[in-house]
Amino acid sequence: MDSVEPFSRTDPLSSSSSSSITYQGQPDQPTHRHETTNITTVTEKSIPSDLGTLQSKPSQPMRDTYPLTSFGLQKRGFSEKYFTIHSWLEYSIQRDAVYCYPCRHFGETISSHEQIFTIDGFRNWKKLGEKLKKHAESQYHMKNNSKYALFLQSKKDGTVLDKMSSSSVELVQKNRDYLKIISDIILTLSLQGMPFRGHDESDDSSNKGNYKEICELISRHNTSFSESYNKYFNLSSSGIQNDIINNAGNIIQSKIIGEIKECGAYAIMVDEARCFKEQQLSFCVRYTKKLEIEERFLGFVECSQQRDVSSLWTLIINFIDKLGLRNFPIIAQAYDGASVMSGRNGGLQAKIREIHPEAIYIHCMAHRLNLAVVDSCNDIQGLKSFFNNLEIFYLCLFPSPVKP
Ligand SMILES: [Zn+2]
């Protein structure tokens, strides 16, 4: 139900001394006092301040006696019985007069005839019953009374805007709850190192892959999730999965960078890695956090095109710039023993030391151990066969990507 805009006068009720009345809600119309001469009295009169406001209700003060006024030989006054007959009726103690609450607040036009119950106040007690009945049956009053009823209803039920707003808040909350579960599924699969997609993700597939199978499992037990999952836009596309993974990665990366900045210096560990047809640099850092050593992976840098010293140096420096770590000193660097990385004069380590002279080079301990083990095994035939067979088993169970 729509709200009813009351036809209110600026501050008509809070200041009985105000002699100027203005009208709101009709910006394209001049105020009535400029339209008709008989309304000029409006500006000269004020409405009593003891009448009801829009926030309250009609003012109906109950008194043992009301002031009496002489009508010829008789004295008459207001009677509270009229409150029972007309619920919209108001009585002003200040002016000893009655008013109509709906017409005061919702009346759109003011004529001399109508203003008796809206501005002047009616106090001809001798004809009160008759005049109230006539007013109650007038088109003007009935229209305003309907507006008042709608106003009360909208206050009780809330406006259309309120309802739309509350429904929108519920929808947003529901979508957020759904996204939380979707994100949790993605993070869990990532943590476990499990593949997301299946070979056949069509509706009639018997195995749609880990991601969709888990979504369907939750759908079977959670009605709210099921409703969102079965909609056309259900965040299950591979593009959105990647977006969520990237966003999670960015959050983790920012946290690590914050810790490095707090530490003030860091060491880098870079090695080449292959991903299908792409050659990548894996970029890791070491730093201290409350005197504990932290070792973190920060990202892959694609280096398929060129892998000479200058290209690798440019890629690493650009990556460090992108992370916002350019102004923080690198105090150590660790690579494998390949000359392009570890060369004392023309290697990557020498290029890094040109701008970070403190960055001592350390031949990666894991690579050194690997070299020592391989050399030892090559001299012992039994061990050589054992490791060869082990590698064959490994390649059989976890096939490596195709090498170009
Ligand atoms: Zn009325």
UniProtKB/TrEMBL annotation:
Q: Where is the composition biased (Polar residues)?
A: 37-59
Pfam assignment, any one: DUF4371
Question: Which InterPro entries does the record cross-reference, listed alphabetically?
Answer: DUF4371, Znf_TTF
So which domain of life are we looking at? Answer: Eukaryota
The residue ranges of the TTF-type domain are 74-172
Q: Which residues cross the membrane?
A: none
Q: Where is this region: Disordered?
A: 1-65
Q: Which PANTHER family match?
A: OS05G0311600 PROTEIN, PTHR45749
User: Under which name does UniProt file this protein?
Assistant: Zinc finger MYM-type protein 1-like
Q: Which organism is it from?
A: Sitophilus oryzae
The gene name on file is LOC115881136
